[in-house]
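Q: Could you fold this chain for me?
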Amino acid sequence: MANTHYYPIGTPGQPWGEAERARWRATQQRQRSYRDDVIAALGRLDDALEVVQYGQLHYAPDHYPLFAVVNRNHDPALPTALVTGGVHGYETSGVHGALQFLEQHAHAYAGRINLVVAPCVSPWGYERIQRWNPDAVDPNRSFRDGGLIEEAAALMRWMAARGDALLVHMDLHETTDSDAHEFDPARCARDGKPLEPEIIPDGFYVIGNSEDPQPAFQQALIAAVEKITHIAPADAKGELIGMPLQSPGVVWGESRSIGACAGFTDARYATTTEVYPDSPRTTAQQCNDAQVAAVCAGLDHALAQR
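A: Sure. Below is the predicted structure, expressed as structure tokens.
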């Protein structure tokens, strides 16, 4: 039976109003620094890469410049790959995996594909190790209708203005134990719904866009990552996070229709990666390495198919 008393904010069965959102927001404390962890790392990148500010978040008293990295020698004759991290700010390896890719591997794709990397889409959430923005809105359900919140809208506007011919879009995420004991309870309380237990997959997996899943592309990512960390097995129902397993470590889910970041572009090859950082069988560095391996495998597969 679903537990109706599972979160300290709100009245069971009633969606939050502004008072509940304000109470929730007051509990969120800064735990790490976007400036030290992300902006400083961007400043250390190779000169062949250009750091571009594409937006600004104003959450008084805090202000967050939003940055993306592109290769300086953009070639309009080449396809473009978009890599996004930190759409959910608390999913650490999405941010640090994107930065590690830029530091260690971006040069290998020079002259082969244009790169656009937004390593931390939600810096307020990154600093507070939080899934939502300050208004308790999920950024990864906001990439539709021009962007429902500024984290999504700023990136969508900028990408539309660039007009890149996107071949690849990889959105780097994690599935954590905190999904089950914090973020799912908070979401159900916010929406006035009962809490249903969720099984957190132990291992890496990917969610292909059901609109155009590109199975071979998804499988290429799994083949690369399984050399670094374990792949999530299906649960007793043959599913991962409530979706049928299509092949080892691969499920297909809606992206565009739900406003997920991986669905807002027209990239032929698109996916959402999911690392499990709470497993005793992996480390934080392996999680970063898994994200990097997935990005490289995705780019390599897409380029090989051209």
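A (continued): Helices lie at 18-26, 34-42, 92-104, 123-128, 150-162, 177-191, 215-225, 284-305.
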